[in-house]
Amino acid sequence: MSELEAAYERERRLLDELAASIASYRLGSRRIYGQWGVAGELLRILTNPFDGRHEACSQTLRMALVAGVLAELVLAGWASCMDASAADPVPSGRRRQRRVPGAVFVDTRRDTDSVLAVSRRPDAAHRWVVECVLSQRQPRSARDWIVELAEHRTPSRTRGDPRLDYAVEDLVADRLVRAGVARRERGPRGQTRLLPADGHLTGALNATVRIPRMISHGATLSTEDAVIAALMDRVGLSRRIRRDTTYRTVSLASTLPLLPADLRRLVQHAYAAFARDAATAI
Questions:
Q1: Is the CA virtual torsion 63, 104, 176, 247 positive or negative?
Q2: Domain that holds residue 50
Q3: Domain-embedded: residue 226
Q4: What is the enclosing helix (H) or strand (E) of 10?
Q5: Residue 89: inside a domain, yes or no?
Q6: Which long-range contacts (C-beta less than 8 Å, at least 24 apart) are formed by 49-53?
Q7: String of b and e for 112-127 (b: at least 16 CB within 10 Å)?
Q8: In total, how many domains does the chain have?
Q9: Mean per-residue pLDDT for 6-22?
Q10: Which of 41, 146, 245, 280 could make a disulfide contact with 273, Cβ separation 3.0–4.6 Å?
Q11: How far apart are CA 142 and CA 80, in angstroms?
Q12: Can you tell me whether residue 5 is helix, strand or coil?
């Protein structure tokens, strides 16, 4: 091999190593910026990383988080959202059938020790939602669950244990705190707020533009990211995900038709929960 060929071979090897490093970095970035589930990413997007304030109405944020946790259960195959019917007792002693659109059902398979398999989910938010759904004998729509669970308060806590006020927000925040990317902190008025952990401010800022950037560049969204975009669009928060960025003209509505039927139905029920004071068709 001549000296010129040897130099060419060394340069080609260096370029291959550089390309591998860039690919590894991009893969790592996707893991860092998109690994917290639908609800975790929604909480990062809708929480100001500098002062911990919500970037949306608190009730709307909580509804989006409940819908996100339900979507995670559907994606994992532990829950479904489908039309069903329920039987209500009437004075005559008979039962009257009524339609329940978008009812939430949880997988009730049991392990060999007769314990519900879904109750062993490692995520506390998943277990909490599953327990609430299984506590009701009659099926209820996703809209009803989103409205109800969004109002559940965090159980009483000790003075030295800072917790967020509402259960769904605190449980999803706990996911980020345990991963070391966020921390709870008491604000100047004594309220608990969620802030990025040291070294994770950039990741929190990136969360707000990651999905619009992918759509703008024609990248293929994962199902989780498509659910996030569709939820943000349907509950009127699309401007929050792209505010003051070069991607503010990107449309998030195009992601809804890409979702499976269960998830499309769930997103529509999240919209119905958000607009429940209006005459909203499901």
A1: negative
A2: 35-73+125-132+143-274
A3: yes
A4: helix 3-34
A5: no
A6: 49/195, 49/196, 49/201, 49/204, 49/205, 51/187, 51/193, 51/195, 52/185, 52/187, 52/193, 52/194, 52/195, 53/193
A7: eeeebebeebebebbe
A8: 1
A9: 72
A10: 146
A11: 10
A12: helix
Q: Is residue 184 a part of any domain in this protein?
A: yes
- Does the pTM surpass 0.90? The reply is no
Please answer whether residues 197 and 183 qualify as being in contact, where contact means their C-beta atoms are separated by less than 8 angstroms. yes
The pLDDT tens digits of the residues spanning 258-280 come to 899 999 999 999 988 887 644 33
Q: 129 near 149, Cβ under 8 Å?
A: yes
* Exposure on the CB side of residue 58, measured as CA atoms within 13 A: 13
Structure tokens at 243: 């505010």
Residue-wise pLDDT for 58-94, tens only, equals 888 899 999 999 999 999 999 999 988 776 665 655 6
pLDDT (average), residues 32-59: 82
77 burial level (CB within 10 Å; 0-12, 13-18, 19+) = exposed
Helix-then-strand count for the chain, H and E: 10, 4
Percent of the chain with pLDDT over 70: 80
Distance of CA 278 to the CA centre of its chain: 25
pLDDT classification of 282: cutoffs 50, 70, 90 = very low
- Hey, which residues does 116 pair with through a beta bridge? 110
Please report whether residue 225 resides in a domain. yes
Q: If you write DSSP's letter for every residue of 132-147 in order, what string do you get?
A: HHHT-SS--BHHHHHH
Least confident of 128-132, 159-163, 264-268: 159-163
Residue 79 has a pLDDT of 93
pLDDT digits (tens, 9 = 90+) for 225-257: 999 989 888 877 776 665 555 666 777 888 888
Burial degree of 107 (CB within 10 A; 0-12, 13-18, 19+): middle
